[in-house]
Amino acid sequence: MTPDFSLPEAVRRTRPLVHCVSNLVAANDCANLALAVGASPIMARAPQEMEAVAAISRAAVLNTGTPVEDTFRACLFRGQAAGRLGQPVVLDPVGVGASPWRLAWTERLLEQFTPALLRVNSGEARALLHLDSRAQGVDAAPDPDRRGTLALRLARKLNTAVLLSGPEDFVSDGTALWKISGGSPLMTGVTGTGCMLSVLCGVFAAAEPDILTATVTAAAFWKACAEQAESRAGRLGPGSFRTALLDAAGTLTSADCAGIPATQL
């Protein structure tokens, strides 16, 4: 599959309203990234307004980081509303292996609705597969073949598309597997870059009905943003790199993204 780098232009033309139930650490950056690529974010979190927000949105990105009970209730109601409306949902189960409570709630969500895309790192994938999960938080698994297998297994188990992000990103629908290379190691020095990738997937899914095309494109686009940000500000420190990521997201052209390979394995 070839990434479709015309998607950012389609987003800017249509300015889709994308609903993000975000975590407290990354909410501001997630909203600003959606704005940078031309979408209109709404960051509503109250369970009581999920139906109303769903009615005016084009896609939802549900992030369960820094959770309280209402976070999971909001995600549950929003995911169910999206199912009734035929909207794409990206579920980002941040730190799902951190506690039995968090894992139990995430599995309840997955029983009640099927997201179009699950965005995880290796530790989160292992937790959802009930494997020994020693890689928590930032993706730490060094073996690309092993990480690709995790993405494939999780997609088959949950019958949905999976994006397993890290030094290389892997996208699977349970049958095929794609690897997206590139990016910058400086991404691990800025919190919330995985959460921001989830939002990017939701934004592109609002403009592209094929979730695999939207996801592979988002992963490649974010790798290109990271490379450009490192080139512009990598020597200045993580604060400048974070700002440069948003700048890149708002200014990248198709030619800037062309060097990011997406390979079917």
Structural class determined from secondary elements: alpha/beta
Q: What is the percent of helical residues?
A: 40-55%
How much is the average pLDDT?
92
User: Which blocks of ≥5 consecutive residues have pLDDT under 50?
Assistant: 135-141
Q: Report the biggest beta sheet as strand number plus sense, adding barrel if it closes.
A: 9 strands, mixed
> How far is the first residue's CA from the last residue's CA?
11 Å
Beta-strand content estimate? 5-15%
Shape: globular
CATH architecture: 3-Layer(aba) Sandwich
CATH superfamily: Ribokinase
Give the SSE string. HEHEHEHEHEHHEEEHHHHE
* Estimated radius of gyration: 17 Å
Widest sheet: strand order?
2-1-3-4-5-6-7-8-9
How many domains? The number is 1
What CATH first level would be assigned? Alpha Beta
The total beta strand count reads 9
Number of helices: 11
- Kindly report the CATH topology: UDP-N-acetylmuramoyl-L-alanine:D-glutamate ligase
What would you note in describing this structure?
- The chain is α/β, with parallel strands linked by helices.
- It has a single domain, classed as Ribokinase (UDP-N-acetylmuramoyl-L-alanine:D-glutamate ligase).
- Helices cover 50% and strands 14% of the residues.
- The chain has helices at 7-14, 27-36, 50-56, 69-85, 100-112, 122-128, 144-158, 193-207, 211-233, 238-251, 254-257, and strands spanning 17-21, 40-42, 59-63, 89-92, 117-120, 161-164, 169-172, 177-180, 262-264.
- Strands 2-1-3-4-5-6-7-8-9 form a 9-stranded mixed β-sheet, with helices on both faces.
- Helix 4 links the parallel strand 3 and strand 4.
- Helix 1 crosses helix 8 (193-207), helix 6 crosses helix 7 and helix 9 (211-233) crosses helix 10.
- The radius of gyration is 17 Å and the shape is globular.
